[in-house]
Amino acid sequence: MALTQIERLDTVAQSKVTTSVISYARITLLILTPLFVVLAVNSVAPFLETLLVALISAGGLVTSFVLWLNWRFKVYALSLWCFLFVIRNAISNGHPHSHTVLEWIGEHSFSLLFFYYGCALWLKARGYARANQSSFREEREKIEKWMDEKSAIAHVEFPTGSFWTGYWTYYIFNPEDCWVVARYKRGGKKLASCRVYELKDVRFARLSSGKWRIDIVPQSGKKKSFVEVDLPVPFTSQPTLTQTA
Fold first, then answer.
1. Which residues on adjacent β-strands are paired with residue 181?
2. pLDDT, tens only, 94-146
3. CA–CA distance from 110 to each of 72, 147, 238 (Å)?
4. Closest Cα to residue 182, out of 18, 22, 23, 16?
5. Residues 10/195, Cβ–Cβ less than 8 Å
6. Which residue in 93, 97, 37, 88 sits closest to 64, CA to CA?
7. How far is CA 60 from CA 31, 51, 115, 188, in A?
8. Long-range contacts of range 235-241, CB-CB < 8 Å, 24 or more positions apart?
9. How many of the other CB atoms lie within 10 Å of CB of 140?
10. Predicted local confidence at residue 131, as pLDDT
């Protein structure tokens, strides 16, 4: 199915987060892989256990190499390495016999965690591969330019969140005929999410307090609302600002 221009931009914007994941994974594997290699070489465990650690080491080395390549399918390699870790733990004889469900969960917690990471990365890999096709070159250049220049564009920046949901800083700006909504970990520069919406999907309503309510209502997905937000004058003067009563 053909994507609209906004959907194409949104696909590329979401892949920006995956780019950050790749950077962190490169560093993590550089630390973990030598450790697994040392464990495999100096292992005094039974043959099966030593072989499984060696497979994890080899998989880590291959994945680490692949992540440095300019290959749009490389995130799949990281997902497969997580699944390899799960398989290794499933085959291993090093687990004591569990008597209760809680004991089993505790003993296999790392397997469950890596299975979750593997599934999440597999989904990200699909979007990353699509966004890095040659046909998306124009959209990639646009998103890159917008993110680099977002501070110079009329925008609203505000903190939100709680202990349970995490603390975040949102950037909302209008570079062209669309809205870009970027979310960062508060106090840092780590991009947590980035989306591109149609103009009608982001709505602003002035409250009696003088501040604003912002509603993000995409055609598909969960609605998000923010209240008591201060909007700077350059932002409220934009002709593309859609106000609701």
1. 172, 195
2. 555 555 655 555 566 778 888 999 999 999 999 999 999 999 999 999 999 99
3. 28, 36, 50
4. 16
5. yes
6. 37
7. 10, 14, 16, 29
8. 235/154, 235/155, 235/156, 237/154, 238/154, 238/174, 240/174, 240/177, 240/199, 241/174, 241/204
9. 20
10. 96
- How many helices (H) does the chain have, and how many strands (E)? 7, 7
Q: Which amino acid is at 197?
A: Y
pLDDT at 18 over 90: yes
Residues in the chain: 245
The model scores a pTM over 0.85: no
Q: What is the pLDDT of residues 53-86, one digit of tens each?
A: 788 888 888 999 999 999 999 999 999 999 988 8
How far from 221 is each of 1, 51, 193, CA to CA, in Å? 19, 45, 14
List the structure tokens of 151. Answer: 């501070």
d(CA 126, CA 133): 11
Cα–Cα distance, 123 to 34 (Å, whole number): 28
Per-chain mean pLDDT for the chain = 86
DSSP 98: P
